[in-house]
Design goal:
- The chain is α/β, with parallel strands linked by helices.
- It has one domain: Aldolase class I (TIM Barrel, Alpha-Beta Barrel), CATH 3.20.20.
- It is built from twelve helices and ten strands.
- The chain has helices at residues 2-13, 29-32, 41-49, 60-67, 98-103, 120-136, 160-172, 186-195, 211-223, 233-236, 241-254, 258-272; strands at 21-25, 55-58, 76-80, 82-85, 88-94, 108-114, 141-146, 177-180, 199-203, 228-231.
- The strands form two sheets. An eight-stranded parallel barrel has the order 1-2-3-6-7-8-9-10, surrounded by six helices. Strands 4-5 form a two-stranded antiparallel sheet.
- The radius of gyration is 17 Å and the shape is globular.
- The chain starts with a helix and ends with a helix.
- The relative contact order is 0.14.
């Protein structure tokens, strides 16, 4: 029955219509420090919820204090259960467990691992244990596995083979969904998808000089086989997060082109203003 529970939750995260997900990330502070775009975080969460993404990722304290008022509004919670620490590069500290995730009503946990450095063996061991426990309880796992260890030069960390290795490592542990970074080349993204026997979703970060370039990249990876996107700063640093989420959904779930998405974004911004 635990596999049934996992499938039910995955089908809440990924639209049954197209098998894709739009997730918005609010898990940055422990890993990256205080960010102005997440102050006050409750307001940004409310704005994003109003656009009804498929899911939102956050740590348990933020979920309890800021996401709880939106329970029942049709947005799945992904509980962040492990996070890197800026003062100890390469190590992911575990901050929650599957039991806490189920108690919070989450549809998945998200865990991380940094590959290509001295902490990789311990990270793999911790991740394997978390996957075993989550799956025992019928809970899907989303992996944030990045080739960012100190043995991989910074300029090579988005090279497709390194990204594919990190994602494949997570899939081989049984992780259900791999969140990955991307060099910007759709053909390389397609090769990563081919190499990884799990759902692959695109992480955010810096993917272009403006909104239109970011939406173009989104459309490219969807066409290359991505099962969705998991964006953070791009959304909540934007002046109008909710219209932007709607534009992203139009590309991911309706196969719209960038022109259509930009038209929707501008229309929603005008109606709001």
């Amino acid at each position: 029955m635990n596999s049934l529970g996992r499938e039910i939750r995955l089908n809440r995260l990924f639209s049954p219509k197209d098998g894709r997900m739009v997730a918005i990330m609010f898990d940055h502070t422990i890993a990256r420090g205080l960010m102005d775009g997440l102050i006050p975080v409750g307001d940004k969460i409310a704005q994003v919820v109003s656009a009804h993404p498929d899911a939102m990722t956050m740590h348990k304290g933020i979920a309890e204090r800021c996401f709880a008022p939106h329970a029942g509004e049709g947005v799945s919670l992904i509980l962040k259960a492990a996070t890197p620490c800026p003062y100890v590069p390469g190590y992911s500290a575990y901050t929650a467990d599957p039991e806490e995730a189920l108690a919070a009503g989450a549809d998945a946990i998200a865990i991380g691992c940094i590959l290509g450095g001295a902490e990789q063996p311990r990270g793999i061991e911790n991740a394997a244990r978390a996957v075993k426990e989550a799956h025992r309880m019928g809970l899907p796992v989303i992996g944030h596995f990045y080739p960012n260890g100190e043995q991989i030069p910074k300029e090579d960390r988005e090279e497709w083979r390194n990204v594919a290795y990190a994602a494949r490592a997570g899939a081989e542990l049984g992780i259900d969904v791999m969140k990955i970074h991307h060099s910007g080349d759709p053909d390389e993204f397609a090769r990563i998808v081919e190499a990884v026997p799990a759902r692959v979703v695109l992480a955010g970060g810096r993917h272009g000089p403006n909104v239109e370039a970011y939406l173009e990249m989104t459309r490219n990876v969807i066409q290359a086989g991505a099962a969705g996107v998991a964006f953070g700063r791009f959304v909540w640093e934007y002046p109008n997060p909710a219209p932007l989420v709607e534009a992203i959904k139009l590309i991911v779930h309706e196969n719209a082109d960038v022109k259509q998405a930009m038209e929707l974004l501008r229309e929603l911004e005008r109606s709001k203003g």
